[in-house]
Amino acid sequence: MNKTLFTVLGSAFVLVACSRSAPPEEPVRAVKVMTVGVDSFNTGHEFAGEVKARVESRLGFRVGGKIIKRQAEVGQHVRQGQVLAQLDPQDYKLAADAARAQMAAASTNRDLAAADYKRYKELKDQNFISGAELERRETTLKAAQAQLEQAQSQLAVQGNQANYAVLVADVSGVVTAVEAEVGQVVTAGMPVLRIAADGVRDVVFSVPEDKVAAIKTGMPVKVRVWAQNAELDGRVREVAASADPLTRTYPVKVALDTPTPPVLGATVYVQPQGLGGAGSQVIKLPTTALRQDGKASAVWVLDKATMTVKSQTVQIATADGNEAVVASGLQPGMLVVSAGVHVLSPGQKVSIYQNKVAVAASASPSAK
């Protein structure tokens, strides 16, 4: 009997030892929640721009030749009429000398024809020659006069060509680029220097294709100067009719309403007024409330009756500072988990997190 009792007790012990203990219940997680509400959209569209001269000229020689001297450098301020560069003028001087010699020869022929005509006219007055002979001498004189005028014009052209070998600033301004160096052979009209004329300054920035339709001429803009931390007023002066072939964006020019514009080339930030919906009422969430559900963005919505969470797909429109603007998927008054979203699962029970300091403060009156 004792043997049988030991056998039964041993079997029971083995069964108890082999049986698995029940898994512990998952703890109720405390989560931070926020009530969905409507707030003002604060951020407008801002574009980076650059201060440029309203008038910028590319200067080049009106004749071709080899550059022998350049007196202007990038960043240098030049005055109107100041010499900027020079070509080798030797060939043009020789051409001018040749034209001058041709004019002297034409002048001599004209004087000879004039004297001949005068003598034949006197003979005609004495009826020693016929009228036809006098007309031939008159025609010769007119031809000699025309040749003289042609030589004078040719001399003037060659003189101009020699003068064109000197590049002179046609406006006062700042040299912004040098496109040819000493020793280089340039053709007529080839850009050598670029000058930003003194006077009015513009702010130039680029907008994408989906925003260019909203930019209108005369639209007020705010211009923030990066280096000076100053804000200026301006108005859209010009909107490009076609996109830049490289960036596929549309250049926009803004006229500044200030007597002391920023320095040339300064970096600025342009914010067109009325573009981007600043001040409109939107639903915003902190980025900590968002999670990725497949290819869509989603949030956890708390059902306060059952204290469980469910996944809610949302569509994000844009960002407003450090917050995301929700286009659809939420309604004001919903409770959304704002922290710890990556450790939750659908239908999970949760509790609302309370700050220990706030709990202690609320418990202190009852302890008295």
Structural write-up:
The protein has 368 residues and is α+β, with helices and mostly antiparallel strands. It folds into 4 domains: 29-41 and 279-360, conserved putative lor/sdh protein from methanococcus maripaludis s2 fold (Beta Barrel); 47-53 and 200-272, Efflux pump adaptor protein, beta barrel domain (Elongation Factor Tu (Ef-tu), domain 3); 60-88 and 165-196, OB fold (Dihydrolipoamide Acetyltransferase, E2P), CATH 2.40.50; 90-163, Helix Hairpins. The chain is 28% helix and 36% strand. β20 and β21 form a beta hairpin. α2 packs antiparallel against α3 (131-163). The two termini are 68 Å apart.
Task: Lay out the secondary structure.
Elements: H1 2-18, E1 29-35, E2 38-40, E3 47-53, E4 56-60, E5 65-70, E6 77-78, E7 83-87, H2 90-125, H3 131-163, E8 166-168, E9 173-178, E10 185-186, E11 191-197, E12 201-207, H4 209-212, E13 220-225, E14 230-239, E15 250-256, E16 267-272, E17 281-286, E18 291-293, E19 296-303, E20 308-320, E21 323-328, E22 335-339, E23 350-352, H5 356-367
Parallel strand pairs: 1-23
Antiparallel strand pairs: 1-22, 2-17, 3-12, 3-16, 4-11, 5-7, 5-10, 6-9, 7-8, 9-11, 12-15, 13-14, 13-16, 14-15, 17-21, 18-19, 19-20, 20-21
